[in-house]
UniProtKB/TrEMBL annotation:
It is a multi-pass membrane protein. Keywords: Antibiotic resistance, Cell membrane, Membrane, Transmembrane, Transmembrane helix, Transport. One of its GO terms (molecular function) is ABC-type transporter activity. Its main location: membrane. This is Transport permease protein. GO terms for biological process: response to antibiotic. One of its GO terms (cellular component) is ATP-binding cassette (ABC) transporter complex. The lineage of its organism: Bacteria, Bacillati, Actinomycetota, Actinomycetes, Pseudonocardiales. It is found in: Cell membrane; Membrane. Belongs to the ABC-2 integral membrane protein family.
Amino acid sequence: MTTSVLSAGADIFWRNQLHLRRRPMLIASTLIEPVMFTTLVGFVFGGSLGGQAYREYIVAGLLTQAAIFTASYTAVGLALDLQDGMVDRFRTLPIPRLAVLAGRTTSDLVNTSVSLAVTALCGLAIGWRPHTGPLEIAAGFALCLLFAFALSWVGAFIALVTPNVQVAGSLGLIWLFPASFVSSGFVVTTTLPGPLEAVASWSPVSGLGDALRSLFGNPAPPGFRVPHGWAAVHPVTYTVCVCALLIVLFAALSVWRYRRRTTR
């Protein structure tokens, strides 16, 4: 069974990569969005919130934002396959249901990898520098991809519970911006008002951002009051646990919903 899932999932993966040639706007957005967000946040806000030290601080937030956008890629891509009847064709083949979804979620990591690379290059261009060794830096990017993979399963579930591509695209994006900004992605959580501070302190987005700063050696600028909750003190452990929980939960929900949606 495991071999069948891996083999069929690999075939779906390559099929999705070949189909990227028909979606040049997706490739363009993968390249343009990191440049736009880095320029906007780094220079528009950076000058008034701490200059160079702040630019180093927010690159972790920009990398986190690039990772969470994987959910929208998956939601739209799977919704298109459902709408175009491609999933119905997969259903007629002797392949496990999990393989169809796993092929989609893993193939979207390619877009995420490109987006992370562009974001990192833009960060270097505005003055960001990691201050740790190569193993810590590699671990940071690996953690980004793990987080992106977990959120890709959330995107798959969104696609499976929505009626069409337009709704999937809207729902795949609508929660991403609040999740990005109600977190430690671009400001420390202690600057947020009461209830929002509590939410942001335990946000998985904050966890990944804090984990990346720890792994890259980019602390908060002088004068920023750093939180001291468990998630903030152990951000790597917290992020890995959240990723494992999201993958297990939403993979199970997605397979269940896929079975119900494709059974006639």
